[in-house]
Amino acid sequence: MANRLFDASVSPAALPEADARGPWAYLWWLVRVRPWPLVLSAVLGMAWMVPLALLPLVIGRAIDEAGRADDPAALSVWSLLALGLGIVQAVAGAGLIQAAVGAEAHAVSYTHRVLMRQVTRLGGTLRAKARAGDVAASAAADVESIGNSFEVVGRSVGAVVAAVLVAVALTVTSPVLGLAVLIGVPAAVLGIGPLLRPLQERDEEQREHMGIATSQAGDIVAGLRILRGIGGEEGFAARFRATSQQVRRAGESAGRMEAWLQAAGVFLPGLVTVGIAWLGARLALNGTITPGELVAFYGASAFLTLPVSTATEAAETLSLARVAAGRVCVLLRITPVPGQPADPAPLPAGPLTLTDAATGITAEAGRLTVVAAPAERAGALADRLTRYGERPDSPGVLLGGVPLDRVDLAELRGRVLRSGPADTLFSGTVREELTAGLARPRGALADALFAADATDVVEGLPGGLDAYLGEGGRALSGGQRQRLVLARALLAAPDVLVLEDPTASVDAQTEARVAERVAALRAGRTTVVLSDSPLWMGVADRVHRLDADGRPARAEGAART
Predict the structure, then answer these.
(1) Is the peptide bond before 441 cis (omega within 30 degrees of 0)?
(2) Averaged over 333-349, what is the pLDDT?
(3) Distance of alpha carbon 174 from alpha carbon 141, whole angstroms
(4) Could you read off the pLDDT of 235-280 as tens digits, one per residue?
(5) Is the alpha carbon torsion for 383, 387, 393, 396 positive or negative?
(6) 464 neighbors 455 (Cβ within 8 angstroms)
(7) Which is nearest to 239 in space by CA: 218, 222, 216, 209?
(8) What is the SS3 assignment for 58?
(9) 374, 548 in Cβ contact below 8 A?
């Protein structure tokens, strides 16, 4: 089967905007955006459940016909009708499974895709606005809970229709028994209601603890080498054990409430069945109903346990789905930073000049500029020059003569790239990681690896460019990861490249090679390097120095010809 991961028809960008005003609004949006899987599931659910409800009534009638000698063919007719109902139920059941799974897959797929689109939109904003554990839990547990609620819809609709049909049929046969059904079944369903709110609260508590635990686990794994180096591994492990015990206790609490709910789903309809069977037996002894009608009533009352249990399952599943959809909506309501300008201005074509009036920085078009700034200010300065981070306002920063806060975000991200120590490597092959699945000019990948002095890193991996990188490239050293991240940035070939301390994790000899090669590769494109290394200053066309307060100290002219 073809890989549809990059198929435009299933791209997150192809989806309409989700309704994230609340959990019910989001679930209803999933129904509206593609209703046919649920409609088909509901129709097949009725076709599966109704024959099951009618079967006891048909069998009861067949028993009564068997006791009559005036019409022997009637027994055969009712028997064939029972057989026909069984065939319809079997066929509808097979279709229901496929339709229900299709409805579940729709909800899972669409929720995954809207989450992926939102994560992509937020970019660096996500790290500041949400815990990594919450994102991971939404992509796994929450999506599954939402999918389960769509899977149960078909059976729930069929159960409701069948229960109403049985109640009507019993009322026509015996008003007393019909009234007992009409009162007993809704009472059994309503008796489950008081358990739903506590279950929902405990599910929310468990979900909260799970998000915290997932975040802690990710932090521990990401910093495992450092933790071992400073002797902090045991302390973090103890902290995670305590958090995992909170998750366990919250899960046990939710499990106990779920067990009570399941028990009520068996006990309450069982009481209804016993009551109807007892009342039917009394009516049969009094001659009010026939033996066949007694069998029909007992079978129908036994059948009614299925709609009630289905309603219990649906209530529980919808409760979990509401919690999950609420968590998804929290992520979807996060506003990307920065926002799109109201009146975007286009950038001029060709190389771009980057200037900042506040710091006095001028990065001339097509040249390499080094900014020597205090280490604690480098990140904020890189944010300012590229409109990244939590405070993206960049007054006084001009790109190609256009105020940076008026540039269309899509154009800005396409022409200006920031690369720094916070950048990460994702799982996949080295080639996929560096190219992002995009076609690159012939030889561009080799040139980028050479400039970043990362050719030996790739050659040392089993499989070279086809070697698989784990999440974060944790099998690599810090210097190797930094060189691959630099190669990825160079391969993107943006008009303006802002590098934040790109050689902090390599030795001086490697840094000298990287500086020379990057300067050569980026000739004709604007490059800004935030570093106080003399090796970068030695290859710069212009050097700016900032004092401890981030104000301009002095600017130096061309350092090379």
Answers:
(1) no
(2) 82
(3) 48
(4) 666 777 777 777 777 777 777 777 777 777 677 767 777 777 777 7
(5) positive
(6) no
(7) 216
(8) helix
(9) yes
